Amino acid sequence: MKPLDHLTILDLSRVLACPFASMILAELGARVIKVEQPGSGDETRSFEPQLAADLTVMAEGAKLGYPEAKHGIVAAIVMANLVRQVGRKAAFEMVSLGDPVDAQRALQLGLVNRVCPLNELLPTAVALAEKLAAVKRTAMAETKRLFHEVADLALGPALKQGRDSNVRMRKYDSK
Which of 44, 57, 70, 112 has a Cα at 20 to 30 A from 79? Predict the structure, then answer.
């Protein structure tokens, strides 16, 4: 178990205010829901927090992107996660051209879980947070641990990790 696995957090931060908050909170075990709304800073802000969050809700008018190449720098920190989440072609287009992605495209790429009108953004995020918070702490902690552990494994080793997880959970539940 991790120190924050009992917390469910709605991350309303802007990238300039706290670029890695979601990542740090998620690494410490918190269930993180990132909320993206239009006009919350640079509309071509990057996706780092969304890549680290468990779930992301984005308002219809919001835009996100990787403008670094347009400024002569590299989107180096996010590249490994981005490639894994959206694939090589889409990731390369995003980091090399630096064009912003609208909410519908972010949903298509799997960068966000929900897109909704701005007036439904917070209620949608709160509803997801309540669902996550209702899941038994040990089950959620093990789900997150296993999910991230098997993400890059071949099928055979991933299935073995799943079986091992089931054994661990049965032992825990029988106490």
Answer: 57
Can you tell me the distance from the alpha carbon of 127 to that of 25, in angstroms, rounded to the nearest whole number?
20
- Select from 27, 2, 32 the least CA-distant residue to 137: 2
Q: Is the per-residue pLDDT at 43 higher than 60?
A: no
The CA-based dihedral angle spanning residues 121, 122, 123, 126, taken in that order and rounded to the nearest 10 degrees: 130
Active-site residue set: 48, 68
Tell me how many helices (H) and strands (E) the chain has: 8, 6
**Cα 43 off chain centre by:** 18
Type of residue at 89: K
Instruction: Please answer whether residues 65 and 94 qualify as being in contact, where contact means their C-beta atoms are separated by less than 8 angstroms.
Output: yes
Element (H, E) at 31: strand 31-36
Out of 15-24, 69-78, 85-94, 124-133, pick the least confident. Answer: 15-24
Of 171, 142, 146, the C-alpha closest to 157 is 146
- Measured distance CA(149)–CA(101) in Å, rounded: 29
For residue 76, what are the contacts with CB-CB under 8 A and spacing of at least 6? none
Q: What's the pTM?
A: 0.71
Both ends of the chain: CA-CA distance in Å? 16
Residue pair 103/62 in contact (Cβ under 8 Å)? The answer is yes
